[in-house]
Amino acid sequence: MGVNGSGSSDYDRPMSETGDATAGGVREVKSAARTVELLEVLATRGDRPARLQELADELGVPRSSMYALLQTLISRGWVRTDVTGSLYGIGIHALLTGTSYLDSDPRVRAARPFLDEASQTLGETVHLGRLDGHDVAYLATRESHEYLRTISRVGRRLPAHVGALGKALLAERPDAELPDGPYEALTPNTHTTRESLAADLARTRERGYSVDREEGVTGIVGFGFALRYEVPALDAVSCSVPVARLTPDHEARIVAVMREIRGKLEATIPAGSGSVHWR
Fold first, then answer.
1. Rounded CA gap, 208 and 187, in Å?
2. Could you tell me the CA-to-CA distances from 173 to 106, 195, 208, 238 in Å, in that order?
3. What is the end-to-end Cα distance of the chain in Å, rounded?
4. Structure letter (DSSP) for residue 157
5. Using N-to-C axis directions, what is the helix angle for 52-59 and 63-75, rounded to 10°?
6. What is the mean pLDDT of each run of 10 residues along the chain (279 residues)?
7. Is 31 helix (H, G, I), strand (E, B) or coil?
8. Global pTM?
9. In the sheet that 50-51 helps form, which strands lie side by side, from edge to edge?
């Protein structure tokens, strides 16, 4: 970005150089978009470091340009490299920025004591998630202290169609917004067609909460509750329990407790509470 040698800025260049127009009509800055895409690629790789050529190929940029971008991000802590300088992974500044997102969100802060209450009452793992496009991002998790338990982590992303959190939020929206499919299958129980998912969402609306019976993780059942302090809801809470520990009585108790927790959260975080309304 900035002014080039001819005296014109990036915004004065043809759109083919700066990128496509965004929904607001402002031209996308290609270098910024490429940086974000690189960080997203590294983040999705988890513990699998990437080589320079892999990244250049995946993003479709020259090897020399990719190398320069990586070195810039390494110097600022957004990317890390091994002692040989040939392997690349996400850097610690990505963690620090993600943590600041959680710390700055009043709804996440307000939800934490209620997640504690639900987990302690039920003895199960409880989550807070937010819809982000076609995925759900986990914003907070309270893990069960039982030996047999579900394991999750803050920052995890799952396709909305496979889990209790996502299905609870999709049910708050018209079926016309669902992608055509087919959808990715994470287990044999995952809904992979638009018709199957729409039928499940209809049942979710009738009962008032979603049920994920081993659709995202084999051996785990989840119960999801959309938080309707905004319309349509963007946040939801869920309780996950191993199938081996789920009895009809325990399921009924989970639903009752989570309904109560949802009510407390919606009363604590009313719409238009004065906080910044992010889009």
1. 24
2. 24, 15, 13, 18
3. 25
4. E
5. 110
6. 36 39 68 90 86 94 94 93 92 78 81 95 95 91 66 74 96 94 93 96 97 94 96 95 94 97 90 53
7. helix
8. 0.71
9. 50-51, 87-90, 79-81
